[in-house]
Amino acid sequence: PVYKVRRVRRVRRPRRWYPLQWSAGLHLTGITTNQELDEEGVAFGGIGGHLRFRNYRFGAELSLDVIGNDFLDGGVRRVSVPMQASALLYLIPHGVFNLYLLAGMQVVFSHVQWDLPNLYTDQTFTQFGLHAGVGGELNLSRHFALTADLRFFGLVRSDEAGDGAHYEGIDKEAVVPHKTSGAQVNVGFLLRF
């Protein structure tokens, strides 16, 4: 008998899709705090940017925001610049939707300007703190994703280098409290490369 030998082709398994390692993006941000200024809640809005590095399940992020608001009918104007460094843990690391946890530290630089009948001056404050939260990425392509996250934070004011000097007639705890906490919501997009 004659036997024919056939070559069997190996079927390559499709490679699991995963996002590229580096990404940069922009986001809109909103912050609310446990602080009140003359019975008016202290909240801020602004824009920010972030740079991320990701290795499948783990990642890191650096972000910079510029936020601000006016209070007491424009009598108090505050602009803050939070700088955050975060570690990310992806619970759902692949697929169209990626879910992650995040935690890290931040430093916040704030400039407060008073334009009141009895006071016209300005002052700069610095705060340090920690944050943690949860977020998600909606991958519209390998290079583009929509992103959103919710972060809870706690901050302590630095009273060094003149930051602790306050003006008469101004409640220092109302302007920049020694301790404050709150929540931050970011909604934006990122580009992977």
Strand and helix map with partners:
Blueprint: E1 22-37, E2 40-55, E3 58-71, E4 76-92, E5 97-116, E6 119-139, E7 144-157, H1 172-175, E8 179-192
Summed up, what is this model?
With 193 residues, the chain is an all-beta fold. It contains one helix and eight strands, in the order E-E-E-E-E-E-E-H-E. The longest helix is centred in the last third of the chain and has 4 residues.
Description:
The protein is mostly beta strands and 193 residues long. 2% of the residues lie in helices and 68% in strands. The chain is built from 1 helix and 8 strands, in the order βββββββαβ. The radius of gyration is 24 Å and the shape is elongated. The mean pLDDT is 86.
Comma- or semicolon-separated keywords:
elongated
How much β-strand is present in the residues? over 45%
Radius of gyration: 24 Å
Shape: elongated
Question: Whole-number average pLDDT?
Answer: 86
What's the β-strand tally? Answer: 8
- The proportion of residues forming helix, as a percent range, comes to under 10%
- Pick out the low-confidence regions: none
Number of helices: 1
Order of helices and strands: EEEEEEEHE
The class by helix and strand makeup works out as: mainly beta
In what order do the strands lie side by side in the largest sheet?
Answer: 1-2-3-4-5-6-7-8
Termini gap: 60 Å
Largest sheet: 8 strands, antiparallel, barrel
Multimeric organization: single chain
